[in-house]
Amino acid sequence: MMKFSRILIVFLIFTQAFFSQVREVKDLDANWKFHKGAIENAFQVNFNDSKWETVTVPHDWAIKGPFDKDIDKQVVAITQNGEKVASEKTGRTGSLPHIGTAWYRNKFTLPKNSKNKKIILLFEGAMSEPQVYLNGKKIGEWAYGYSYFYFDVSEVIQEGENTLAVQLTNEAFASRWYPGAGLYRKVSLIVKNKESINQWGTFITTPFVTSNEAKVNVKTKVSVPNSRLITTIFDAEGNKVTTLESSLSFGNEFDQNIKVDKPKLWSPETPYLYTAVSQLFVDSQLRDEVSTRFGIRDIKYEANKGFSLNGNVTKFKGVCLHHDLGPLGAAVNKAALRRQLTILKDMGCNAIRSSHNMPSFEQLELCDEMGFLFLAESFDEWKKPKVENGYHRFFDEYAEKDIVNLVHATRNHPSIVMWSSGNEVPDQWGEAGVKRAKWLQDIFHREDPTRPVTVGMDQVKAVMESGFGALLDIPGLNYRVHLYDEAFNKFPQGFILGSETASTVSSRGIYKFPVVQEKNKQYDDFQSSSYDLEACSWSNVPDEDFVLQDDKPWVIGEFVWTGFDYLGEPTPYDEKWPSRSSYFGISDLAGLPKDRFYLYRSRWNTKDETLHILPNWNWEGREGETTPVFVYTNYDSAELFINGKSMGIQKKNNATPQNRYRLMWMDVKYQPGTVKVVAFDNEGKPVAEEEIKTAGKPHRIVLEADRSTIKADGKDLSYITVSVVDKDGIPCPTATNQLKFSVKGEGVYKAACNGDATSLELFHLPTMKLFSGKLVVLVQSKTKAGTMELTVSGKGLKTEKLVVSTSN
Ligand code: GAL
């Protein structure tokens, strides 16, 4: 009896919440049943899924591995990388078991009086080729795993219990990186009245912006003629700013111009957000209400001047990001995304490119809030293939639909300042490709006349000849620093974007000797040197981009490949198992900064001091050998001391790109002890110092949480950096101790990652080796507030504990 009444109360609360407002959004996140493998009748309502695994969505079915060389083994020549002869490649899509068919099933209940409602089933991404069934009937399908799409299920959905079944299929060789697998983004149900505002039907732009006033244009598509729309604008503090009522619509669209006095403008430095609440009335009855967050900002792209935001010329200090979240795989998690952006903000980064596909809604929301400019990309392939089962299979049928959904779903984010219709598409060659570029750009323009379109181009000579580059709003060059001047002269736009730059490779905390610039360099341990002088045949080290950015006012910024390491594409070791993740990141797969982080920080973060020494100073066996010391700093000059002895003063100079941006003492001979650097200001006064020391044996574990209180929502994460120090507290930079983790209390152990691109240890198991003295443990909250305790232990080390609180 007790139990029954509890169920009744929960049901009543749920029913009330569901219909107390004119529209409700219900996340379908809990209690999904999951099965890997093709099953013929799994869409049927009475199919018995009781033996299937229970999972929550977002979910990535492949991230728990195991890593397996054979999963993505292929014998190919990657023409993209200039290869002519085929060879065996592994790890290109992460070597995780993402290929094949799988099913998800979810039973959910709709309360009584759901009849006469309009009900939308929204997928924010499904990897991939989703076939969607509701109550045993097929309601639709999609193809591209990164697209947002929805179905109107009003006719098929029923009061009481409903059964949703989704079949997903990942073909082999469908991607150039780890795509993830499954319902890796949110699924939700939107229940509203038949007379309502259309899905993604609101489009807010700010066509006139001064510090005194702004014109906010709100276009709203509705399902019903003869209605009335009231749009009210609220400021970030929730105060009403202004309101406008309209009863005049054009077709099914209202078009309102609303004046905001003394607007607070959105920018990366001041990410101020307003909210527009749109209320739809029919016969004086409120029928629908939608809230849309937006920013007031003005963007312009002008010849020779470049990009201006609110009248200020602004260069893109950007990074490219793939969508995977390292140890979490592709399953979207807001805490993980927020941490990435926090790390990037500290580096001074102001822009993100969602390479090479649609970003998650969560990432865009965070970029709006935290202040990042956003280049939202769509495709890595058009009609001509790069990989056997890539997007070219869907291009004709889906390209327009995919772009329309991208634009409609995300156009109100002030962070988005540019679209990209493609990346290094082989269609850069040939006349048909020129037409395709124009066709796609026109679709973007039709759907959003306020933002320009780019393509990341690598076939620069070809696109200069064919007209492909000239027709784009923004010519984006991927690498090819030697062609910037020529492209600027040939193209009519009057500026060039570094849509993809650097592709420098390095492994955190790994240094190789002698210290020389190299292309495609390989070592026996399958790591790359963190002196930041190694790149690919097609790419370059960061300093070469810096020269262009600093010396050419018409270069409007860069998007570095990449902000973080990602699963897959282990260049330069794609022929060398067990390399399975990238070396390109400024930070590693765990989000731990490599040395390169400080090189970018020294240039991009103009507010905070950067003074960073490399390499580490633990080189037993190298005594007396040449061990160059680099310092990445915002200061112009500095003096270096080894065990108190001066190695001289270095000053940035124009001899080479490296001399311009790094301080380098090339002749230092290694002796254990202390490396100290003293930096000088412009008048030569010592203003800052930093030192590193040779460490003894690992003695004690050190735990440091990025956030010590997290939300008790069952989703939030704390990232705990684990390192070891010697008996004097000096960090041990080469430690590789095997550690064990356990969590008790109101939280769970989620994953660990050490950033080693060759590690086959599984992220979700509670043990991992340190890599270059560090790793990161992720702990996740439960839904009850309280505390959890993480214990980390390792042989011969003092066990360490850390408490993380969770609150509602
Ligand atoms: C680019 C490509 C990226 C990545 C990168 C590696 O050509 O656009 O997706 O493959 O090279 O350097």
TrEMBL record:
<feature type="domain" description="Glycoside hydrolase family 2 catalytic">
    <location>
        <begin position="304"/>
        <end position="527"/>
    </location>
</feature>
<dbReference type="InterPro" id="IPR048229">
    <property type="entry name" value="GalB-like"/>
</dbReference>
<dbReference type="InterPro" id="IPR008979">
    <property type="entry name" value="Galactose-bd-like_sf"/>
</dbReference>
<comment type="similarity">
    <text>Belongs to the glycosyl hydrolase 2 family.</text>
</comment>
<dbReference type="Pfam" id="PF18565">
    <property type="entry name" value="Glyco_hydro2_C5"/>
</dbReference>
<keyword id="KW-0326">Glycosidase</keyword>
<dbReference type="InterPro" id="IPR006102">
    <property type="entry name" value="Ig-like_GH2"/>
</dbReference>
<dbReference type="InterPro" id="IPR006103">
    <property type="entry name" value="Glyco_hydro_2_cat"/>
</dbReference>
<dbReference type="InterPro" id="IPR051913">
    <property type="entry name" value="GH2_Domain-Containing"/>
</dbReference>
<keyword id="KW-0378">Hydrolase</keyword>
<feature type="domain" description="Glycoside hydrolase family 2 immunoglobulin-like beta-sandwich">
    <location>
        <begin position="202"/>
        <end position="297"/>
    </location>
</feature>
<dbReference type="InterPro" id="IPR017853">
    <property type="entry name" value="GH"/>
</dbReference>
<protein>
    <submittedName>
        <fullName>Beta-galactosidase GalB</fullName>
    </submittedName>
</protein>
<dbReference type="InterPro" id="IPR032311">
    <property type="entry name" value="DUF4982"/>
</dbReference>
<feature type="domain" description="DUF4982">
    <location>
        <begin position="624"/>
        <end position="688"/>
    </location>
</feature>
<dbReference type="InterPro" id="IPR040605">
    <property type="entry name" value="Glyco_hydro2_dom5"/>
</dbReference>
<feature type="domain" description="Glycoside hydrolase family 2">
    <location>
        <begin position="701"/>
        <end position="802"/>
    </location>
</feature>
<feature type="domain" description="Glycosyl hydrolases family 2 sugar binding">
    <location>
        <begin position="26"/>
        <end position="189"/>
    </location>
</feature>
<dbReference type="InterPro" id="IPR006101">
    <property type="entry name" value="Glyco_hydro_2"/>
</dbReference>
<dbReference type="InterPro" id="IPR006104">
    <property type="entry name" value="Glyco_hydro_2_N"/>
</dbReference>
<dbReference type="Pfam" id="PF02836">
    <property type="entry name" value="Glyco_hydro_2_C"/>
</dbReference>
<dbReference type="Pfam" id="PF00703">
    <property type="entry name" value="Glyco_hydro_2"/>
</dbReference>
<dbReference type="InterPro" id="IPR008964">
    <property type="entry name" value="Invasin/intimin_cell_adhesion"/>
</dbReference>
<dbReference type="InterPro" id="IPR036156">
    <property type="entry name" value="Beta-gal/glucu_dom_sf"/>
</dbReference>
<dbReference type="InterPro" id="IPR013783">
    <property type="entry name" value="Ig-like_fold"/>
</dbReference>
<dbReference type="Pfam" id="PF02837">
    <property type="entry name" value="Glyco_hydro_2_N"/>
</dbReference>
<dbReference type="Pfam" id="PF16355">
    <property type="entry name" value="DUF4982"/>
</dbReference>
